[in-house]
Amino acid sequence: MNAKNVTQGATVNRGRTLTISASLSYFVFSLIINAAGNVLTVVTSQKIHPTFLGSAYWTAAQAGFNKAVFQGSNGTLGWIFFIVGVLIAILNVFLQGYFNWKKFVGNIAFMVPFSLLISFFASAFSQVLPESHSVLVTVIYTLLNFLGVVMIGLAISIYQRTNLILHPADDLMQILRFKYFKGAAAKAMWASYIPPTIIGIVAIIILPDFSNYGLGTIFAFLFQGGITGWGDKYIFPNLKHQGI
Fold it and tell me: Which of 165, 228, 231, 238 has its CB 3.0 to 4.6 Å from that of 154, i.e. a possible disulfide?
């Protein structure tokens, strides 16, 4: 069945029209972009003193929790992403209203390569990018931070449409988008930010440190959902949402 529906600018295939090889290609490409974008927001924020950038919204909350509990170790950051992902995958089951074991396993499976890529890029970017000691470098890092948010938003657009397996947070956003918000990407993204907001509050209670939150976090909160919606229209425009 390949019936289509258009909601809030998103063209939806109820069935699947992509081959498995095409789906895997889109998935791997977007996975790498997403992990790199996430870490780019974290590292650029850490390299500026005093910090004022922060990182992408989910990333900021999890990095803040990592710093509060594990002193900000790069080695534990990937594990924080993994554990939070498992918890969100469980939440998705309740919001979906039924248990789909393939989707649940897919959520968890996504976290394995994603967490490894997060750890890889965290180590690589930390070594490559120097500390900022000038206005020019600070401006460049600010632009790179915003670029990281854009990369995340576009990556989400690509693998949500592919809908092969999803990061639990992005599956949460997609469930909210098409079940509760009539396809509106920005509204669904804002609603999906409730869990990381709770995580961030807990982290700040444990350690009143705001170094992971700042201008980049605000930029992500305001625009990441809109960037995802924009990507649906203009990045691989022939790629439609599969199996919704």
Answer: 231
